[in-house]
Amino acid sequence: MNTVFNIIVILQVLSALTIIGLVLLQHGKGADMGAAFGSGASGSLFGASGSSNFLSKSTGLAAAIFFIATLALVYLGNHRGGATGGVMDNLPPVSAPAAAIPATPAAPVAPAADAAGSASAAAASVPAPSTGSAQSNQIPK
Description:
The chain is mainly α and 141 residues long. The protein has helices at 2-25, 31-36, 50-78, 115-125. The radius of gyration is 39 Å and the shape is rod-shaped. The protein starts with a helix and ends in a 16-residue tail after the last helix. The model has no long low-confidence stretch (mean pLDDT 74).
């Protein structure tokens, strides 16, 4: 569907550039007065009156292509399927081996300097439980 979207965008840009070129080639309403004073409109590529019909029909066709491409882009933009979540939602699930994940986390091991010193160091590193309910979920600093 991305390829169709890109093709329609290219078609829309080309039709817009075609419209710009065709509008710049056409004579305005005030150009008839210049032709009356010898501007030389009869020596143009399409003849004296053929350019207005050909250029206006070509401009109308390019404008129709532009509007159809615009409506197609709106439709594709609003009805795009695909990922509804994030990038990580599209990944396949990874199953880890059961032996690699321990059931309970291991307790940190303190260096054994002496039996009395390690027991007092372990007791000093663990904070005392607080009695207030407002601070029971906060980490001590």
